[in-house]
């Protein structure tokens, strides 16, 4: 059965923009985040406190957070890989942070310069201090279907990492097909391995759309009871540590699907598409959203 409502988690300003080679000015990021919140999104991931040597585009996250108009009821989470990142997040007054793990050792090494076990040794004090300070902590898992360096990833490996994130106190675990290769049968096998350990009402799905399978995977996940979907306005993005991977599934496309299914989200498609069109114009390319392009040509 399909959920009656879905929480859309907008990751464009972080997952989308982190991969842009040219620096995007803080003012443009701020306008994007505010426009997304105005469109009705209740979660707008707004940056990350990671090493600026690793991801230079996110180096101005503190400035961005200082400039946005925080709307009541809207959450503006940021990624933090370690205590240093968490301390920066505290200074910026965030209410939610996300820690990010991988289901494959090679990706953990490339993305965070450590093994999966080492990453959990870092996350444990981050989660503990964040929770003690009253923040909410979300957990991400990369490579839930396949790894760009190792190939297919076993569902049991994903389940183990999900269980570890939940044990640290993550209220939700977002399952990321980082390189966008999965098809519904693989996604369902993965969800069926994870759900006995972390219940489906604590799971989110996070699809990159490299092979055009994201909407099919989302529909399959909704039918399994998942009710939280990550997406990126205008399909922005890619991953700096997953060569060739495209952006996340476009938020406008996800919203069109959900609207068509009668699933409520609280998001306005015209305002969302307008926000996507503005950032695409800034980046000098057409929107990566099929729905946004169709709406613009009407
Ligand atoms: P490291 O080099 O092993 O760290 O990187 P280190 O502790 O040895 O520190 C090295 C330098 O980085 C030092 O500076 C630190 O101060 C600095 P130096 O003394 O050389 O001048 N540093 C920091 N600076 C600012 N903020 C920090 C921070 N930490 C250290 N928090 C580290 C390890 C984890 C820091 C690094 O690998 C890193 O920053 N990785 C982040 C990679 C990243 O952001 N990837 C993208 C996000 S994940 C993703 O996109 C996937 C997802 O969307 C789901 C999916 O699709 O799969 C979530
Ligand atoms: Mg991602």
UniProtKB/TrEMBL annotation:
The keyword Repeat does not apply. Transmembrane segments: none annotated. Keywords: Lyase, Metal-binding. The keyword DNA damage does not apply. Its EC number is 4.1.3.4. GO terms for molecular function: hydroxymethylglutaryl-CoA lyase activity; metal ion binding. CDD domains: DRE_TIM_HMGL. PROSITE patterns: HMG_COA_LYASE, PYR_CT. Residues 6-273 form the Pyruvate carboxyltransferase domain. Belongs to the HMG-CoA lyase family. This is hydroxymethylglutaryl-CoA lyase.
């Amino acid at each position: 059965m399909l959920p009656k409502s879905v929480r859309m988690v907008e990751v464009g300003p972080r997952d989308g923009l982190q991969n842009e080679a040219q620096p995007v000015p803080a003012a443009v990021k701020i306008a994007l985040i505010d426009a997304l919140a105005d469109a009705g999104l209740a979660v707008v991931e707004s940056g990350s406190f990671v090493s600026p040597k690793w991801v230079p585009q996110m180096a101005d996250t503190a400035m961005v957070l200082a400039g946005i108009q925080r709307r009541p009821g809207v959450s503006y989470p940021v990624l933090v890989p370690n205590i240093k990142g968490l301390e920066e997040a505290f200074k910026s007054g965030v209410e939610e942070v996300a820690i990010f793990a991988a289901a494959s050792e090679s990706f953990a090494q490339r993305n965070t310069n450590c093994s999966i076990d080492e990453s959990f040794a870092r996350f444990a004090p981050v989660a503990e201090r964040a929770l003690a300070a009253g923040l909410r902590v979300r957990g991400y898992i990369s490579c839930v279907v396949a790894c760009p360096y190792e190939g297919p990833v076993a569902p049991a490996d994903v389940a183990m990492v999900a269980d570890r994130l939940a044990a640290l106190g993550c209220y939700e675990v977002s399952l990321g097909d980082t390189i966008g290769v999965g098809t519904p049968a693989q996604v369902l096998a993965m969800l069926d391995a994870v759900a006995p350990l972390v219940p489906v009402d604590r799971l989110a799905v996070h699809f990159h759309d490299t092979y055009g399978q994201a909407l099919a995977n989302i529909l399959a996940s909704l039918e399994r009871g998942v009710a939280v979907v990550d997406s990126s306005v205008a399909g922005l993005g890619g991953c700096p540590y997953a060569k060739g991977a495209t952006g996340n599934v476009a938020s406008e496309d996800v919203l069109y699907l959900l609207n068509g299914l009668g699933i409520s989200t609280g998001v306005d498609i015209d305002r969302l598409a307008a926000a996507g069109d503005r950032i695409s114009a800034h980046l000098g390319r057409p929107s990566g959203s099929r729905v946004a392009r169709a709406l613009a040509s009407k």
